[in-house]
Specification:
Blueprint lengths: L1 E6 H5 L3 H9 L1 H19 L2 E6 L9 E5 L2 E5 L6 H12 L5 E5 L3 H9 L3 E3 L1 H25 L9 H13 L1
Parallel strand pairs: 1-2, 1-5, 2-4, 5-6
Antiparallel strand pairs: 3-4
Helix pairs in contact: 2-3, 3-6
Length: about 170
């Protein structure tokens, strides 16, 4: 099994699309990153965990799943780097390969020393762009070869069905 642990704010601060979104609405930037990681997870089969620092969201540690992606807000006074290091250590075993997405150079070396593989924010963005192109190509092929529905669906209903499909 492969697990990708993502340093959430580090990636948001490195991807141009998410930087501009962050400047308007940090919550929307977090949601957009989680959605992209859901696509990554669905396409690659990796388990994806996104970790955000507590200093942007005060209070107790929070964990939840969104689009089957595990999202963790660290507890107060715990950095995302510390949580990522703990996760990499806890989850690592013979059958599991841990990948950590961060451009924090120090963090890369720490997790590399624990046997995890690193992905810089740029590498992950390039991989996401390739995945997006592949998904678009597959969708075009499906639409081209898709039989027409006997039941006409409005765009709104089709969108609801698509949302249900992604949550499986």
């Amino acid at each position: 099994m492969d697990i990708l642990i993502v340093d959430g704010y580090n990636i948001i601060g490195a991807w141009p699309e998410l930087i501009s979104l962050k400047n308007k609405d940090l919550g929307a930037a977090r949601d957009a990153l989680v959605e992209k990681m859901a696509e990554y997870q669905a396409y690659t089969g990796f388990r994806v965990i996104v970790v955000f620092d507590a200093h942007y969201v005060q209070g107790n540690e929070k964990k939840y799943h969104n689009y089957k992606v595990e999202v963790i807000f660290t507890k107060e006074n715990e950095s995302a780097d510390e949580r990522i290091e703990k996760l990499a250590s806890i989850l690592s075993n013979r059958k599991t390969q841990i990948h950590v997405a961060t451009s924090d150079y120090t963090e890369q070396w720490v997790i590399f020393g624990q046997g995890a593989l690193r992905k810089s924010a740029r590498e992950l963005l390039n991989e996401m762009n390739l995945i997006q192109k592949s998904i678009e190509k597959n969708v075009k092929n499906i639409q081209k070869n898709k039989p027409f529905s006997k039941i006409p669906l409005s765009d709104e209903i089709a969108e609801i069905f698509e949302k249900w499909r992604r949550e499986r």
